[in-house]
Amino acid sequence: MIRPRRKARGPTVSVLRIGHRPGRDPRLTTHLALAARAWGAERMFLNPPDAELASRIDAVSREWGGSFRVEPASDWRAVVREHAGGVAHLTMYGEPLDRLLPKLAAAPRLLLVVGGAKVPAELYRRADWNIAVGSEPHSEVAAVAVLMDRLRGIPKRGARPGARRVILPQPRGKRVLVRRAGRP
Amino acid sequence: MIRPRRKARGPTVSVLRIGHRPGRDPRLTTHLALAARAWGAERMFLNPPDAELASRIDAVSREWGGSFRVEPASDWRAVVREHAGGVAHLTMYGEPLDRLLPKLAAAPRLLLVVGGAKVPAELYRRADWNIAVGSEPHSEVAAVAVLMDRLRGIPKRGARPGARRVILPQPRGKRVLVRRAGRP
Question: What is the DSSP string of B31-44?
């Protein structure tokens, strides 16, 4: 019997990834989507869209449960404009996370925006906050995961709704519970 | 005048990346190395070696300071065997990070081992701990960054030894201090 997952604390989070290069960095953006999902984000908007990547992530959600999806975002400005909540742009040039964390934690809904190599300058103006998860170059995957970890903590164990697979943690080796179709 | 960086708390950390595919995933392994560096790891051993990647990371350390390096590891078993400290293998099948964190924090030296798609089964036996940073698939970049963030906190601001560049955090836009050669 696997416990259902408890609801996490903290704001509801979506991620917007700008400047994805389909074909060039599928693995990096896949890791970004999976980290956002694993720490409990609701969705990742992807600009430009990449249907193949979105469908690979759908397959992960079918297997491991939950409703996380990668949604196409041809117009990233529209996603930012229409987001009903705080917009946090993650950039090593921004203000330290330590300083801004209380404000982020108080927001009911957050959009975390991460760019690729070239970030449009206007993003710095459109964001409510420009946040540095460390003021050195590293990785948008690390930045999103650490920010979400600080905000919401590590994902609670237990099955997500609809999960076919659940890992049973072990000191050595692998143990996975696979549910048959049609069983709760 | 930029403060020198204060020493971080927690164990001294090295990372060992197994199953790198030169040519296939340079960006993912680059992000892993940069995240390890940014959170204060001393070095990343890379198996199989990739001289081009190591030299790109050297360039980052010349620019941003500190002594982080990517070291070639043709024989990953030798790196694990010769490591004078705890060996923590990061895998979604392992024991929850929350449970093991006190043990990790008490170790003076840690080697964090992350695999690629295929992890040799014997790694589960050779590690002192198999640690799950969340029991779902995501990213070795996220796993290393979050574990180091929990262990040592976010990197302190201020210049690293030898840094030519230091970011001055800003609410909007970019501000970088570039030192001339020969100036402290």
Answer: HHHHHHHHTT-SEE
Is residue B159 a contact partner of residue B5, using CB atoms and an 8 Å limit?
yes
**CB-based contact B39 A134, cutoff 8 Å:** yes
pTM for the predicted model, two decimal places:
0.94
Query: Cα dihedral sign for B13, B39, A109, A72?
Result: negative
One-letter amino acid for residue B31 of the chain: H
> How far is residue B134's CA from residue B125's CA, in Å, rounded to a whole number?
20
ipTM of the complex, rounded to two decimals: 0.94
Tracing tokens 């946090």 back to the chain, one arrives at A88
- Distance between CA A151 and CA A153 in Å, rounded? 6
Residues of A in contact with B60 (CB under 8 A): 137
Measured in degrees and rounded to the nearest 5, phi and psi for residue A27 equal -70, -40
Write out residues 30-49 of A within 8 Å (CB-CB) of B: 31-32, 34-35, 37-39
A101: number of Cβ within 10 Å: 15
Q: Which residues of A touch B166 (CB under 8 A)?
A: 135
> Using a CB-CB distance cutoff of 8 angstroms, which residues of chain A are in contact with residue B173?
93, 124
DSSP-assigned states of every residue in B71-105: EE-S-HHHHHHH-SSEEEEEEEEEEEHHHHHHHHH
CATH architecture of B12-178: 3-Layer(aba) Sandwich (3.40)
Which chain A residues touch B145 with a CB distance below 8 Å? 138-139, 141-142, 145-146
Interface test with A, best of B135, B148, B165, B176 (most A CBs within 10 A): B135
Q: pLDDT truncated to tens, each residue of chain B (184 aa)?
A: 455 565 567 899 999 999 999 887 789 999 999 999 999 999 999 999 999 999 999 999 999 999 999 999 999 999 999 999 999 999 999 999 999 999 999 999 999 999 977 788 999 999 999 999 999 999 999 999 999 999 998 877 777 899 999 999 999 999 999 987 655 5
